[in-house]
Amino acid sequence: MAGTRRGSLRARLTAGVVLLAAGGMVAVNAVSLIGLRLNLVDAADATLAKARATVQHRVRDRAAPVDGAGLDSLVPDGFYVALVDDRGRVVAQTSARDLSGRRRARPDLPAPVPDGFADRPRTLPARGAPVPRYRTRTFRLNRPATIRPARGAPPRRFERVVVAKSLQPADDVVYWLIGADTAATLAALGGIVLLSRGVLRVGLRPLREMAATATAVADGAIDQRIEVAGHHSEVGEVATALNRAFDERQRSEEQLRQFVANASHELRTPLTTIRGWAQLHLHGLAQDPALVERAMERIEGEAARMHATVEELLLLARLDQGRPLDDAPVNLGALADDAAADARVRDPGAPVTVEVRGEVFAAGDEDRLRQVLQNLLGNALRHTPPGTPIAVTARALPDGTAELTVSDEGPGMSPRTAARVFERFYRGEEARAPAAGGTGLGLSIVKSITEAHGGTVTVRTAPGEGSTFTVRLPAAR
Ligand SMILES: Nc1ncnc2c1ncn2[C@@H]1O[C@H](COP(=O)(O)OP(=O)(O)OP(=O)(O)O)[C@@H](O)[C@H]1O
Ligand SMILES: [Mg+2]
């Protein structure tokens, strides 16, 4: 991926990081600047209180009474003092130029100065300019004092003194800091942008690798997998989940291929037989009427077998689609009786017993459940020697499940066979002989039907110890 596309995850993450960082820095800067300013104003207020003490002491000192010129020397540079009479008029004030002769702004006092003006410190603008501003405070003398504002002028009485301190130094510090903070913040944000781009490029690399692998898998390289080692955390979880999805896809694809191969193979055998007999007849080789009859019989038999296989495949395909089944109450006891009766008809010598305990009902599709019993009993008859005792039971379990079992005292199965009997097209060793005739779909149909009903089927068996198939189904509501 070259560069950062607009709207890409990386661009959005970078923007998010920068926005958050900028927000945080601005907030911190604002708080510290406001704090600093409050502090500086507090300090100015404290010096005003001190200046008040000095001024009060000096104007009362009879030995050195203040005059207009002496007013400037009362307070340090940067301060302003005004003497106010009983009518609020300014009698004298510090001069408009400082010691070095530079003009200085004065606080913008109201004229006349109202009673109670600036009893508490307040900020005033300078006359004619918003900056510098003045922190101003007024105090009243215990008794009026007199001042000779200028040489030769008549003395004037005053009773209030306004002291003000320029906030210029404080403002200078604050403005300087705003500039410095802004520069530092911008530099830091620039650094964060560069760094986070780098970090994100490295951090998002696994995602890009995953996308590449997923694309490769989608394009047909179905055995490619994402390297999970080294990816911990969420990325690792995503990689593992994707790998599992790929495994699952590969598995189901292989299963499907296997299924189609098996099905074709299963249909090819009877087709070959049918064609063989048909060609024999067409080429006039079957002159003997007995042979012709034999051919017709075989063709009919194989066609029937194909028909049965195709029916079974269709049934499996339908069950695989997961279409909802009937869920009427089905009397499993009656089904067990019927299946046993059918078995006795098919195989008159077979000792088939049925035991139904109480009323056993399951919710489901009667025809399908009938088929489950037929397949299980068919196996018990087909895969055991003649005369082997077979028992069918049906009962309701305490938890409400309905249970069906079909057991025989036949040869049983090895653990390896038992582990695979529910696979499609799987046939045991003995059953593979063409004479045995099965396609190996019987038990997979049992499994599909049971699971479509929300139930389970299991087998308990061992060589020489017979086999017991147990089907559990949710009870009828
Ligand atoms: N009661 C049983 N006793 C011993 N082996 C059994 C029993 N039931 C099933 N098997 C074994 O399990 C295999 C799979 O059974 P399944 O019913 O799926 O196929 P099948 O009976 O061979 O063919 P069909 O599709 O005609 O049923 C059988 O081939 C057989 O080897
Ligand atoms: Mg079978």
TrEMBL record:
Keywords for this protein: Kinase, Membrane, Phosphoprotein, Transferase, Transmembrane, Transmembrane helix, Two-component regulatory system
SUPFAM superfamilies the record matches: ATPase domain of HSP90 chaperone/DNA topoisomerase II/histidine kinase (SSF55874), HAMP domain-like (SSF158472), Homodimeric domain of signal transducing histidine kinase (SSF47384)
Domain of life: Bacteria
Stretches the record annotates as Disordered: 98-130
Pfam families: HAMP (PF00672), HATPase_c (PF02518), HisKA (PF00512)
Domain HAMP: 201-254
Enzyme Commission designation: 2.7.13.3
Cofactor(s) in the UniProt record: a divalent metal cation
A single GO cellular-component term on record: plasma membrane
Entry's transmembrane regions: none
Chain ranges of the Histidine kinase domain: 262-477
CDD domains linked: HAMP, HATPase, HisKA
Protein localization: Cell membrane
Reaction equation(s) it catalyzes: ATP + protein L-histidine = ADP + protein N-phospho-L-histidine
Molecular function in Gene Ontology: calcium ion binding; phosphorelay sensor kinase activity
Predominant place of localization: membrane
Protein name, as recorded: histidine kinase
